[in-house]
Structures are given as structure tokens and as C-alpha cells.
């Protein structure tokens, strides 16, 4: 043991005092300088969170949330409670950041394809095809999007609007007359699918519709599966279904080219470009892959959003009444067999707020995945090349800084202008939803017919979410019973 001569002790103390001073100074410098440097370069340092074991990371926790009736976003919520708004995690071997801010969203959306790209997995590319808008590289994407866009503009949708409205009137009437409870989600899935197939490829034959729908569901299920061609797996079923669909679309294209049929629809508008220069038309693979993409991207999203609108309106009767008043005033002075027009939609200002509030609350697409193409800094946090940065639309839509009392269904909040990037249910930038107008038209017409023609009761109050779904949907599908609205109701 080291003993100190008493006479030397003060000196040593003096020396220690100096050493202590130097040490404190050194430690302070080592803490302060990096902080100053970080402040200067606006770098906050590393993002908190647990990466866990190599590859596996927190995959099991993520899968467990996805398989629960709280839904996969519960995984994100839980980590926010532990680590704060910014956190990192590892899922399936990839580092993921959930970007919770409008600043972060802006940076990612405005640099899409340049600093970030859609983080798609092999199974997704195999399922929807290499020429799909969801998978094609930048230049191809720009061209394909430009050529696909016109049929989805508001003006081009008037035919779709008429067909959807008349289909909806008939089906709702039949259900009301039956007096039976029906599952809104199933109803919405079927009607959005049928209406889209009619608009895109003029298919109305029930047997063919059923086959296409079954195959599209199999393809959609395969998009996030393990890509091995083993019979019995989701991937195998999806790839087989894709081949059948490509064949069906191929035969349709051949019949139209031979002049046997030429209906006025989306597919025909693409084929009319056959004689155009190559950058002004889509080749057959591009047409087929994007037909499939449009059906898959449009059906489940719109159907889920419509289901949530029914649920939210049931829970908020004063909103339902206000919406009904607006819709009844639109149908006044119209003949009994009227169909909704684009002008009518323009006068549904409260209806549009209900649509927006439904999309804000329900977050049909919870987050939008991207991969960082280079090391970069988002809001002061260092992001490494290859990390997955997910624009967390749900967090932004539920942020009290943008939406007072965010969990209250209050469409009137949309009387105020939204802050940039605080309302992004359809994304933003070059990948903004192509079906944004179609989705709005569908939802508005649905709300119009439902509230101006009927009242309804929700027959199952269960709030549990469907397991294993990446789109939040009620497990019950929201069963309801309709009754015709009578004068004086
Ligand atoms: C309420 C209904 C809908 C919602 C909430 C929705 C939401 C979105 C969002 C957020 C994106 C961008 C995703 C990202 O940035 O990663 C997107 C993309 C897309 N949506 Fe929709 N969508 C809806 C309906 C539709 C419909 C009806 C169609 C077409 C018929 C459609 C077709 C597409 C396509 C093709 C893309 C890819 C665009 C691209 O990458 O350039 N969507 N949608």
C-alpha cells in the first residue's frame, strides 16, 4: 500500500489540486468542444434507440406488434415513450429511423430519388413488376408517371364518378332493403375494386372480376414476404397470381389491338399512343405492371379510409348531422334519379373536411419508407448511407403542435390552413399519390350517399385492429345496419 510522508502531503495536495484543475479543464473541453462543434455544424449526434442483436435487432418485437390487435404502429409508439421523438431500431437487419417532424419530411420528400429512394424489398419488385411506378428508377418513373397521370386528373374522372355513384346507389339500396347487417370494409373493398376495374379495363363480368381480385390480393400479400419460390408460401402464390394477371392483361391488349374491342377506358387511352414516339408511350410491360400497381395501390387504401369515416361519424353524431345537412342541401332541387357531378363535389366543403380529418386520424399509410443513398444529416441527426428513414405521417398527424386535441375527430380544424408538410396522407414530392383525386371523389360520393340517404347503427363496437395488416383496419370490418332516412329524421 502506498503511504505518504506527512510533510509532502500539502505539496502533493497542491500538485493534485493542479492536476484536478487540469483534469476538470480537459474533461470540460472534451465535453464542450464537440457540443460547440455540433452546434456549429448543427449536428445533435447519434439517435437514441436499441439496435439489438446483429440482423435480428428488434424484428421479433416488430412482428409481435404487427401480429397483435393493437397494430404495428404500437411498436413505434412504445419506442417513442422510451427514447423520445427520434429513435432508431433494427428490423430484418436494417437500421430504421422514424422521422417525426415536418422539417424531416420536407427534407426527404424534396430530395426523393436524389438523396433518398423508396426502400423496396425484392419480393415487392417481383410482385408488382420491374416497370411498376413503385419500383422503376428515377428517369423511367418520371416518364411513366407523366403518361399515367391524365386519366387521374379531376376532369378525366367524371365518367368514373358517374359509374361509381350509380353502382353505390344500387348496392346501398339493396342492402337497406335486405335489412341485414353488412361489413362495411368488405362492401368497400368490393365496390372500389369493381369501380376501378371498370374504369381501368372495362371488366364487369362477375367471374372475371372475382378471379382478378383474388389474384391481386395474392400479389399484394406477397409484396412483403420472404422471396423463395416454395409451393405453399405467400411469395409462391403471389408470383403465380402475377403470371395469371399478366396473361389476362396481355390477352386484353391483343384483343384491342386486333380491333375486336375498343372500350373507352384507361387501358384504351394508353393503347391509343401506340404510334407515338417511344418516350410518349408506355410499352406493354409498363402498361401491365402499372395496371396491377394501380389496382393494388388504390383498392385497400380507399376502402380502409371509407370504413374509418363510417366509424368516426358514428362516434361523432354532431359531425354526422352537420355533414348530412350539407349533403341534403346539395340534393335539394335535383330529380330523384340524379347522379353526383364534379360541380356537386366542389360544393361539399364540409364533406371535404370530413375526408381530410378521416385521413389525418386513421393514417391509412402509417409511414412512408425511404433509404438514404448517402450519409446525411436530418434535423441535426446523423444518418448513415443505407439506413431506412421512414417519414412518420402518423406522428406528424397526431402532433398537438399542429393539431390541437389531436385524437378528437374535428373536421372544422381544416378551416385553418395547414402548416407545410403537416398534412401528408397522400405523401408529397415526386411520389405523391397518383390516385389522390380518385380517392377524394370516391370518399366524397360515398359520404354523400350514406348521409343523405341513410342512418346507420354500428353492430360491433370492437376497436381491435386486424392482425398482420400494414394498413390499420378494424378487425370486425365495422359491420353496420342501414335504415332509410325519412323526412323529419
Ligand atoms: C385514401 C386513399 C389513398 C391513400 C391514403 C393513398 C396514399 C398514398 C401515399 C401516401 C402514397 C405515397 C407513398 C410514398 O411516398 O411512399 C401513394 C402513392 C401511390 N398511390 Fe395512393 N393512396 C390512396 C388511393 C390511391 C388510389 C385510388 C390510387 C389509384 C388508383 C392510388 C395510386 C397510387 C400510386 C400509383 C402511387 C405511387 C406513386 C409513385 O410512386 O409515383 N392511390 N398513395
Q: What count of domains describes the coordinates?
A: 1
Task: Kindly provide the name of the CATH class.
Answer: Mainly Alpha
The CATH superfamily name is: Cytochrome P450
CATH topology: Cytochrome p450
Q: What distance lies between the first and last C-alpha atoms, to the nearest angstrom?
A: 95 Å
- Give the strand tally: 11
Strand content: 5-15%
CATH architecture: Orthogonal Bundle
Task: Write out the distinct hetero groups bound to the structure.
Answer: protoporphyrin IX containing FE
Choose one word for the global shape: globular
Largest sheet: 6 strands, mixed
Please report the number of helical segments.
17
Structural class, from secondary structure content? alpha+beta
Q: Low-confidence segments, ≥5 residues, pLDDT <50?
A: 1-42
Mean pLDDT over the residues: 91
Q: What's the Cα radius of gyration?
A: 28 Å
* Order of SSEs: HEHHEEHEHHHEHHHHHHHHEEEEHHEE
Biggest sheet: strand arrangement:
1-2-3-9-6-4
What is the share of helical residues?
A: 40-55%
Amino acid at each position: 500500500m502506498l503511504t505518504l510522508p506527512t510533510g509532502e502531503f500539502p505539496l502533493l495536495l497542491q500538485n493534485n489540486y493542479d492536476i484536478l484543475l487540469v483534469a476538470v479543464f480537459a474533461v470540460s473541453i472534451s465535453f464542450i468542444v464537440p457540443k460547440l462543434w455540433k452546434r456549429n455544424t448543427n449536428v445533435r449526434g447519434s439517435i437514441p434507440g436499441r439496435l439489438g442483436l446483429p440482423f435480428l435487432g428488434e424484428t421479433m418485437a416488430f412482428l409481435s406488434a404487427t401480429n397483435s390487435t393493437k397494430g404495428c404502429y404500437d411498436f413505434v409508439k412504445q419506442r417513442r415513450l422510451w427514447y423520445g421523438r427520434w429513435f432508431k431500431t433494427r428490423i430484418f437487419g436494417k437500421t430504421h429511423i422514424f422521422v417525426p417532424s415536418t422539417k424531416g419530411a420536407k427534407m426527404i420528400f424534396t430530395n426523393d430519388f436524389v438523396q433518398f429512394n423508396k426502400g423496396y424489398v425484392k419480393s415487392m419488385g417481383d410482385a408488382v413488376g420491374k416497370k411498376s411506378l413503385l419500383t422503376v428508377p428515377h428517369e423511367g418513373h418520371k416518364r411513366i408517371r407523366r403518361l399515367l397521370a391524365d386519366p387521374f386528373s379531376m376532369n378525366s374522372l367524371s365518367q368514373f364518378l358517374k359509374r361509381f355513384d350509380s353502382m353505390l346507389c344500387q348496392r346501398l339500396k339493396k342492402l337497406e332493403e335486405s335489412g341485414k347487417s353488412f361489413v362495411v370494409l368488405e362492401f368497400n373493398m368490393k365496390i372500389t375494386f369493381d369501380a376501378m376495374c371498370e374504369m381501368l379495363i372495362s371488366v364487369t363480368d362477375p367471374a372475371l372480376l372475382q378471379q382478378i381480385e383474388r389474384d391481386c390480393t395474392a400479389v399484394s400479400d406477397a409484396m412483403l414476404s420472404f422471396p423463395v419460390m416454395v409451393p405453399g408460401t405467400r411469395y409462391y402464390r403471389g408470383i403465380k397470381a402475377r403470371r395469371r394477371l399478366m396473361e389476362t392483361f396481355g390477352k386484353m391488349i391483343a384483343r384491342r389491338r386486333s380491333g375486336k374491342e375498343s372500350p373507352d377506358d384507361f387501358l384504351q387511352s394508353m393503347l391509343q399512343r401506340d404510334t407515338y414516339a417511344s418516350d410518349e408511350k408506355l410499352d406493354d410491360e409498363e402498361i401491365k405492371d402499372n395496371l396491377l400497381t394501380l389496382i393494388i395501390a388504390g383498392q385497400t387504401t380507399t376502402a380502409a379510409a371509407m370504413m374509418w369515416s363510417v366509424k368516426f361519424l358514428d362516434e361523432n353524431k354532431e359531425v354526422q348531422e352537420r355533414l348530412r345537412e350539407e349533403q341534403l342541401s346539395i340534393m335539394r332541387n335535383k330529380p330523384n334519379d340524379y347522379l353526383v357531378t364534379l360541380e356537386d363535389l366542389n360544393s361539399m366543403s364540409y364533406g371535404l373536411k370530413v375526408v381530410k380529418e378521416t385521413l389525418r386520424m386513421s393514417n391509412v399509410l402509417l409511414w412512408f419508407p425511404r433509404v438514404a443513398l448517402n450519409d446525411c444529416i436530418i434535423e441535426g441527426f446523423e444518418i448513415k448511407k443505407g439506413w431506412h428513414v421512414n417519414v412518420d405521417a402518423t406522428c406528424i398527424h397526431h402532433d398537438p403542435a399542429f393539431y390541437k386535441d389531436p385524437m378528437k375527430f374535428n373536421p372544422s380544424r381544416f378551416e385553418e390552413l395547414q402548416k407545410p408538410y403537416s398534412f401528408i396522407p397522400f405523401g408529397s414530392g415526386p411520389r405523391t399519390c397518383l390516385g389522390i383525386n380518385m380517392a377524394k371523389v370516391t370518399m366524397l360520393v360515398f359520404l354523400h350517399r350514406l348521409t343523405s340517404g341513410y342512418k346507420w347503427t354500428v353492430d360491433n363496437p370492437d376497436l381491435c385492429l386486424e392482425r398482420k395488416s400494414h394498413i390499420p383496419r378494424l378487425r370486425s370490418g365495422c359491420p353496420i345496419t342501414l335504415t332509410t332516412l325519412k323526412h323529419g329524421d
